Amino acid sequence: MSQPLVLGVAVAYLLVLFAIAWLVESGSKRLGRIAGSSLVYTLSLAVYCSSWTFNGGVGRAALNGFDFLPIYLGPTLAFCLGPLLLRRILRISKANQITSIADLIGARFGRSGGVAALVTIIAVIGLVPYIALQLKSVSNGFAALTLTSPDPANQPFWFDGSLWAAAILTVFAMLFGSRSIHPGEHHPGMVVAIAAESILKLIGLTIIGLFVVYGLFHGFGDLFTQAATVPEVAQIFARSPEHYGFSWVGMTFLALLASFCLPRQFQVMVVENVNERHLDRAVWQFPLYLLLINIFVLPIAMAGRLLLPGTANPDNLVLALPLLANQPVLALVAFLGGVSAAASMVVVETTALSIMVCNDVVMPALLRVKPFGLEQRTDLTRLLLWVRRGVMVAVMALGYLYMRHDNAQVTLVSIGLMSFVAVAQFAPALLAGLFWRGATKAGAIAGISLGFAVWCYTLFIPSFTQVSPVAGFIAVGPFGIDLLRPYALFGLTSLDPVTHATFWSLLANLGSLLVVSMLGRQRPVDRAHAALFLDADNPAEAARIWRRTALIPDLQSLASRFLGRERTAAAFDIWARERGLDPATAINADAETVLYYERLLASVIGASSARALVGAIVEEQPLGVEEVMGILDEASRLIETNRALEAATGELQQANERLQELDRLKDDFIATVNHELRTPLASIRAFSEILRDHADISDSDRQEFLRVVVGESERLTRLIGQLLDLSRISEGGAPATLAPVDLVHAARDATAAMQQVFATRGVALTTHIDVRAAPVIGDHDRLVQVVINLLGNAAKFATPGSGRAELSLRRAGDQFELAVADNGPGIPPKHRDIVFERFRQLGDTMNGKPEGAGLGLAISRRIVAQHGGRIWVEEAPGGGALFRFTLAAVPAGPREDAAAAEPALLPAR
Amino acid sequence: MLRRTARRDRMIGLFVLGLVLFNPPVLNLFGGTVFGWPVLYLYLFGAWALVIVCVALVTRAAAPPEGDGGSS
């Protein structure tokens, strides 16, 4: 076939893909719906299958048998860990607006540019061979199809297929990946185009496979039977315990890590993901795609071994077999499949790399250098796009140069594996960062750099075999030191170069990450940062760490330089609505708003650049040690909670004790009332029965019994009256009547009422009333009752026979003070409060209490309290108890005169 | 619907199963041909398909029916 025809078909095919992408992004509803589906997500993940799969897999199978498969079994295993590992990556990335794997690792380790830039540089260097692989594959295919020599050295450069491939793929990468700046780095058009390419890859390889198996042979059985006659193939099929060892395991492991560490996989799996639930289907659909695309790889390879023995380049078998059978159309389909695989890989990989380089290397550098005048430029979106396009061109140029240098001696798979080992260096820092808070920035830097250094030494530098010093370096080691030979470091000779490099580089990487993290000290603020980064999305929490304030117009103008004015305004409207702010009047941005803008910016220019830019216009308040500790130490939070719990428990215990006490009091009360009511009732009943049943008792006895019955009845009446009093007094807050009362008058009334009691008990009562009149406001009867209660107590407790009691009333300031003292046993200080409680009688309640139920003092205290006074007990001068209460005097005035005019009448009462 | 942790545990179990099935030394137990087909070819794709089917069953059991149009 002629070169222009093949070239024209390939370009036309790519243009069709671009048209699909353009339709999706220009808002076609039908295609837009497809773009958001889980099937497109799964198919876009199949960008994993580059021309390495399409052409290289067959080549590898033709040479080595089954060991093309670990590259696909690894991702299957990785996706088994989907719910555990990939979902976590997805969640954390979404919450932190991550735009690339460098951004994720950089953001985890303190948002400083260093780590992200390191990852980016390693990714670019590590992936150059991989991109070279795609160019080489396409140019090989082009050469095979046009029957020209694949070696660029034999051609003038304008016939160099790989240069054309590089140029065309670069243009398409720019068209797909850097047409405009989207917040969140979503490229729905690119994703749909890649999904379409994935379908074509699968169909292409399946058609070739079916053609080979059923067109060139009579089915699988025939093909395999014939192949088994070739001794080397028979050896591949044979059972041999030594056949697949460390290299198989090593490749599986590498592919497992690469399935989320490759920048293009990270781009389609995490950055382009629109719905987290798509992952639920992808965990089995993506491995299924890998299985389907690999079914025919071995049969095609076997057919190649049989029909084209001794082919110089087994990587071209997919094209060579249809050409052999004189089927140019099938060959063209195979070629387009290979172009699809290469194009999708190159487009996504360069897009991901350009985002990484732009956001994590170029922008931070430009922001640091003042003379560039970035401060003054109002619209930076164009600058961003051109930086990205420049990066794409540079990456492709590097790939082309590497390919030109690296001549056809190395198979596609070997080149690809080299890149796999390079990106696997991100895995320890990424995984430790995601699951271990103790991983430090220094540890991450040490691990990644050391792993990368070992990769360079054991794999990358030796790949420049054409440079003469390198050949000697491989053979005898640097300076002839045998132990340092790059393919047999420290004398490890039993492994192939890739497995060897995988082992040493990851050992060095993980080892230094762990050692440096564990030995180094992490600042509390860093640990707090790690905790916030990992603990889901909580802006309020994060805002606690960065207490930054700014002016909203400043943030607006900053954001609009990178996102454009309209997008920024729309984003702020959403935020303002969410927060209930008025967009027209809001001026001051709090910490959460600042964080919102930072994340908005991060979605376009990466976390570290966004941090630097926002940092320039905000006022940051230093974080106090206490806040850091508060955020940081779950332990301290727990202790606080514990303290609160303890306090609450203490209160509860007190309340419980109080309740138990009240319960006991209630029981006491009921028991006492029961006793106090039953005793008189029992005696009334007993004496009444005697009177009824014994008609012959003497009159004097009868009189005596009736006297007891009457006395007990009176006692009952009194008790019930007291109980009623108590409940009545406890109901209302104020005395029933409020009238001017003369306390002297009340005291005299009470004394008169109790005269008989004192006489009966042989207690001498004296009164000392030092005031002419004691006017207070209150209820006369109640106050009399209080005095009677106190006198009753005195009469009860005064020493029988020689008892003395004294009532005194005097003025103390603006109060009147009435005291009743006796010469009884007195009340010990610890009981001076509880005597005022209901039924609190000192001593044994069962004995020696002919009168009262212990309610007197409780009633008195309530009455005094209702009158706004105070009652208490103290020790009398003679040793007994002294009850004293005070009541406020009515202010001097006409009332005093009225009271003074009255005394003349008093004696008459 | 399975609890999330139950699903996670089953997926980890499948990961370990795949790890064992897809790698030597178990891999090296299979060799030779049966009815002309290489046994290792049948074994690898069979084990692979088995793991995929199991993953699909576990996620199917866990996920409520999803209402997105494109993949049905």
Oligomer state of the chains in this structure: heterodimer
Separation of the first and last Cα atoms of chain B: 20 Å
Helical element count of chain A?
Answer: 37
Q: Taking all residues together, what is the mean pLDDT of chain B?
A: 78
Q: Helix share of residues of chain A?
A: 55-70%
Strand content of chain A: 5-15%
Helix content of chain B: 55-70%
Largest sheet of chain B: 2 strands, antiparallel
Morphology of chain B: elongated
Biggest pleated-sheet summary of chain A: 5 strands, mixed
**Span of the ends, CA to CA of chain A:** 143 Å
Which geometry of chain A do the CA atoms define?
elongated
Strand order of the largest sheet of chain B: 1-2
Structural class of chain A: alpha+beta
Got a strand count of chain B? 2
Low-confidence stretches of chain B: 65-72
Any idea what the radius of gyration of chain B is?
16 Å
Category from helices, strands and their pairing of chain B = mainly alpha
Radius of gyration of chain A: 50 Å
On the 0-100 scale, what is the average pLDDT of chain A? 79
Which sequence of SSEs, written as H and E, runs from N to C of chain B? HEEH
